[in-house]
Amino acid sequence: MIVVPDDFPSVFEGSAAHERAKALGEVRLFTERGAEDEAELARRIGNARAALNIRAYARFSESVFRACPQLKMISIWGTGTDNVDLAAAARHGVTVCNTPGVNAIAVAEHAMALMLAAARKIPQIDREMRGGAWPREMLMQLHGKTLGVFGAGAIGSRVAELGRALGMEVLAWSARRDTAAAKDDILRRADVVSLHVRLTPETAGFIGTRELGLMKPGAILVNTGRGALVERDALLVALGAGRIAAGLDVFHDEPVKPDDPLLRCAGVVLSPHNAGQTPEVRRDGLLAAVANIENFFAGKPTNVVT
What residues does each domain of the chain span? Predict the structure, then answer.
């Protein structure tokens, strides 16, 4: 049996991937909220052998694995694995797979859109014009500026390509090959910083008070990775002081609450964690997630994380 415990908002039901999954056996699909509760997530998984994880709010913890001894495989729609306790999965003999690279083009384009919107102050200017103003303030030109890309995977590499196409000097940093000193050097030199590192215990708070202090006054921070890559309080202080601008697609709490102080910060462009929401990404990513399950059932697992 395959279970999809967290298809809310629904993207899987009735899709080509849904039909493909049905060919593998019984599919139990949940399209209502509730999987963020670990006990409810375990109840939904039940005796399923494989789970297709749609949303990051469903957290596969030690207690979930303990309650679901029949679960042997999790296929994640997307790249991030921070909602899965990988060590616990390994202890319980659960194979975890993801779908790397499927959303790279869409997320990279969105990162550039946030970058341009923040540099050109488009949301602010649009709002002022709708109020009857005719704003004439100075804007940032990206051509000739320096782009610091943190994370050299499929998304980060594509952002670097797009930055070069705009005429930016690109400085790239990889956790596998570069030092902390190199990270600091890029932060000091970059006019725009774009985050594409995977969220792990080691990268939580990757950008904090010290790192924000290294950035140039007026620099732009773009985050389409995970909210927890940036220390929340430090970001609020930097934005509140007008030291930096930002383009954010990810947040510590999702959805963002109406009283979140981020909503009152000037110089920040926000989008609701939808950088990869294109028909192409949805179709190809869901099919790839089902293909991972097919291959696992056939004894040839693909895109294995652990």
Answer: 2-102+278-297, 104-270
Q: Which residue has the tokens 């990775």?
A: 225
Residue 4 to residue 23: CA distance in whole angstroms = 15
Q: Mark whether 273 is an active-site residue.
A: yes
State the Cα–Cα distance between residues 243 and 11, nearest whole angstrom: 39
As a CATH number, domain 104-270 is 3.40.50.720
List 18, 196, 273, 282, catalytic entry: 273
Cα separation, 43 vs 29, in Å, equals 13
Q: Do domains 2-102+278-297 and 104-270 have the same CATH topology?
A: yes
Q: Which of 101, 107, 114 is nearest to 147 (CA)?
A: 114
The pLDDT value given to residue 79? 87
How far apart, in Å, do the first and last CA atoms of the chain sit?
A: 21
* Ranges under pLDDT 70 in the chain: none
The active-site residue, picked from 55, 226, 231, 282, is 226
Q: Which of 210, 254, 264, 280 is catalytic?
A: 254
Sign of the CA dihedral running 182, 196, 172, 211: negative
Give pTM, 2 decimals: 0.90
Question: What is the predicted pLDDT for the residue at 57?
Answer: 93
CATH topology of domain 2-102+278-297: Rossmann fold (3.40.50)
Which tens digits make up the pLDDT trace of 205-262?
Answer: 999 999 999 999 999 999 999 999 999 999 999 999 999 999 999 999 988 999 999 9
